[in-house]
């Protein structure tokens, strides 16, 4: 009913909401982004994909703009709001509009801007003009990024390349995995997902690893990952790989009682293929293996399966997740466990021949 916008207030309460460039995990003005409050402040319509009963799309129109508005989801709300220290919903809607207009990814845009803000805050990039909380500055930067004008030309390269230009300290801190900016989940407070981010072929992508499902459940301790966390990270990664291949929306996951059996039934209904749940599990693992092989072919090394240095050495300062940090040696053990359970080498290389063929 309220869409993923409602995640922001919930994640703030749990202490997993990245704020001020991943320096904190709670935002003092999170209530300003409460979906009920937003619906009272702004014109709002709900839409969906054809014939979908979920209707996850929520379009909000800014007050000073008579355009068609912008789709608000948790990810653009977090990235262009709390992560940049911006507490004005109007600004976030307008920033989302700009990203849509220029074809910019809202997560990568917001994370890169916030990273530049922190580099300026720490004295690593004194020339960067925008600081946390500068709503007008964020709105000015988005067109500059799209047109590669001024500092926008540097931000347009993303956090990894920007960090290389700034210097070694920035490279250790840059919030990306394999060049993909982190989405709206602080890894220190969701350590099953932290593993999922590190090992994913595409990098830090919450749509490729749904390990947060385990972290938000009673199955594991979200602050201290163990082998159960590894197994759930693998399970959700395989599930995501198969759902993407079947072209299924991930919002249907919790509507299915026996997902793999239901996936097989759906595929059979469309294609007439006689396929079992076990065969689909093998297929999913083969997909994950193949993506890793492709990365190896392009030059992947074990050093790529890593998290930004901050999450290993800077504990969460306060809030519900106060003190949370990812122990480096323990994380290395989890990586080895993941590789072993995948049937890969101890340092993360998959077998040359695909599983099951």
Tell me what you see in this structure.
The protein has 357 residues and is mainly α. The chain folds into 2 domains: 4-181, Aldehyde Ferredoxin Oxidoreductase Protein, subunit A, domain 2 (Orthogonal Bundle), CATH 1.10.569; 187-342, Aldehyde Ferredoxin Oxidoreductase Protein, subunit A, domain 3, CATH 1.10.599.10. The protein is 48% helix and 4% strand. It contains 16 helices and 5 strands. It has helices spanning 7-14, 35-41, 74-80, 89-102, 106-121, 135-147, 152-155, 158-166, 168-173, 191-199, 212-215, 227-246, 259-271, 277-297, 310-313, 328-342, and strands at residues 43-47, 57-61, 70-71, 176-177, 180-181. The strands form 2 sheets. The chain has a 3-stranded antiparallel sheet with strand order 1-2-3. Helix 3 (74-80) runs parallel beside helix 5 (106-121), helix 10 (191-199) packs across helix 12 and helix 13 crosses helix 14. The N and C termini lie far apart (44 Å). The model has no long low-confidence stretch (mean pLDDT 94).
Describe how the helices and strands are arranged.
Layout: H1 7-14, H2 35-41, E1 43-47, E2 57-61, E3 70-71, H3 74-80, H4 89-102, H5 106-121, H6 135-147, H7 152-155, H8 158-166, H9 168-173, E4 176-177, E5 180-181, H10 191-199, H11 212-215, H12 227-246, H13 259-271, H14 277-297, H15 310-313, H16 328-342
Antiparallel strand pairs: 1-2, 2-3, 4-5
Helix pairs in contact: 3-5, 4-6, 5-8, 10-12, 12-14, 12-16, 13-14
